[in-house]
Design a protein that fits this description.
Layout: E1 13-19, H1 30-46, E2 50-57, E3 60-66, H2 72-91, E4 103-107, H3 109-121, H4 123-126, H5 141-146, H6 156-162, H7 165-174, E5 192-193, H8 196-210, H9 218-229, H10 233-237, H11 243-259, H12 264-270, H13 275-289, H14 293-305
Helix pairs in contact: 1-2, 9-11
Amino acid sequence: MARRPRVFAPHVLYHVIVRGNHRQTTFRTSADYRAYLERLGRYLQTCQVRLWAYCLMPNHVHLLVETGHQPFSTFMQRLQQPYTQYFNRTHRKVGHLFQGRYKALVCEKDSYLLTLIRYLHLNPVRAQLVTHPEAYRYSGHTAYLTGRATAVLDPMPGLGVFGGTRAYRQFVREGMGEGHQADYYAVADQRFLGAERFVDEWQARMKDAASPRPKHSLARAFRAVAMEMGADVARLRSADRSWAVSQQRTRAAYLLIRRWGYRTGEVAATLSRDPATLSSGLTRFAARLREEPATQRELDRLAKIIKI
């Protein structure tokens, strides 16, 4: 079966899981942990990735990261390859250290950020490596307890969401009895962790990204749609949020993205709109169409007569 494509967008929360090849140990000594953390800190900075939480286990790694504008695969490649070279050189090994493909699950930040930070930091307790998370040296838990930044993790943004170190400590204490959470691994479409609406929006983005490129320029297609709908191009691009203009704008975006395969980001830029907001609006509009056959017929008519 062909591998499904990676999902990438800036400012997206990922739960990353990297396992040792054939479950082999990836950290044998304290020097190994330090070597990985040193590289992690370096490439977080150069690739402009924000780390919210981490936990290095003897045979796998958990990272909770938020992307910048560089492809996430660049960050992971820069992190994993140098550490593998270090490990093989130090321990006189050859071949792959980590499994060929890491998991990178897109997570709904508002719903899962706090629980995932706790879940990662309690991993050593669930694995019975320690009885309390503060006894484990290779996670971000201590930084959250002290509020002091390390070379890898600045806990202050996360503590700001929790409401301070006391609230964080209490939240972790409440999760001490929490067992393995399969939902954090085997998730919808194996790539998304979130509510149904969140998953639907991301699946629409993936469908959009996989669509073949249209033959004609977006500018030409946009003008053709506006003309056929009797809409003014400048008003569709303006800040006008009146009902009539908003309806025309949504229908134009739906045709351009869902029917003809233009990229959401490009259409959003053409309409002077935020891509995430536009994507959410189209998801709601697509759901409405099932209950509005007259609107669906009108869109079908436009799609047939406009030559793109």
